[in-house]
Specification:
145 residues
Length: 145
Amino acid sequence: MTLRSDYLWHIALGEQPPTRLPSDLASVRVGLALGLPAIEALVGEGTGVGPVKYCLAHRQLVVPVEAETVHRWRAAHSDCVPSAGSRSCSAGGYRGCMGLWVTRPGPARTAVTPAGALHEALSLTRARLRTAGTHYPRHQEARCA
């Protein structure tokens, strides 16, 4: 799997995020095939993107967002969980969530990704993939950091 991006990222190897996350947060969990292009689109349009965790074992992204997002997130392409389960992907099984945390470089880092902007980017990306006839293959090459 290749994680490519047109933008610079800082990579942190470890279980903890590279920046201090607020204690009251939620996280959106989404597959890499849909999530990576959506995150790239947000960065490309200048939206502040907070830390993102790539679970390489389960091919999912974990994107911290505002805590109140849990009660209003209604998306078929992803799920949103409260802070208690927010640092791991949704996959179960014998392999735990293994991942890399990445952040955008710069002195003024964003604490969390805006949920509304993320939802819109995921929806637009999903629509583009459907229009192109792409059916979210499980082992598609991913683009990102």
